[in-house]
């Protein structure tokens, strides 16, 4: 399948693995890229330019295919060394960057000069248009279904994708709730030129996370995610667990008085305990509603090959069949 996204990133299939904290290590990115998609290393999980440079080098040892790095701009107490991280990406020869969280205008000129393609993740048409206007090459349109930060507008992809298609000139991928060939074909029908998956890629053989995380995703239904931190306007969709229910109880009790300090125990620094140690009740971890569509733990190649083969059947037989009949 050839789209403006496959052409832009030099990949075989229009499937991207979104940056994921404590999941997007070199092993994850290389597995997706080796399977013909675009794997992405999560820059902030590495934290320092030196560690990111090392992770990029490790990924290059594992794949000859293109891969990217995610740079997330989120409200943090101690801001990471963004200029250093940008330099590590460029010096490492990476040609694709996924930005997210905030306007990437400050880093764009460096990437443009180095010939790095930037895909910005947005949760609204307004932010997608902004990304286009400042010179981003593509956008990843992240609907309300998504795992992680869906923004505050709550527009699901059935509306958001066609709205983005109506307004944008640059290509975009559909993100949030994407799991299989049906997701891909529907996204293409709505104007996207590929799809981005987060949660689905965690439940794969190669995802470098504890088995408990993969099992939790397979066991979960579409009813098992919650929105936390809405009162702080930093909404995050997470898998429910004891810590999340405790956090939500605090939000109900404190109402408008809620401060980040009140929930620090449930959200700060919990990712290594969950993703690495498999302590599933340690705190709030991002997970999409799409968990309800995930019932197996394939290799990345099995997953992507399966999606592409089934997408062809859907398009050539099911869809074309309606017309031929
Ligand atoms: C565990 C987890 C961690 C994530 N961490 C990040 C992150 O650090 N930066 C980012 O831009 N997006 C992050 N995301 C969002 C994903 O890149 C992607 O946009 C999202 O998962 C898409 O929705 P889906 O889970 O329904 O596929 C994370 C998602 C998950 C599930």
TrEMBL record:
Primary enzyme class: oxidoreductase
InterPro entries: Aldolase_TIM, NMO
CDD domains reported in the protein's UniProt record: NPD_like
EC number, as in UniProt: 1.13.12.16
Protein name, per record: Nitronate monooxygenase
Keywords from the UniProt entry: Flavoprotein, FMN, Monooxygenase, Oxidoreductase
GO molecular function annotation: nitronate monooxygenase activity
Pfam families xrefs: NMO (PF03060)
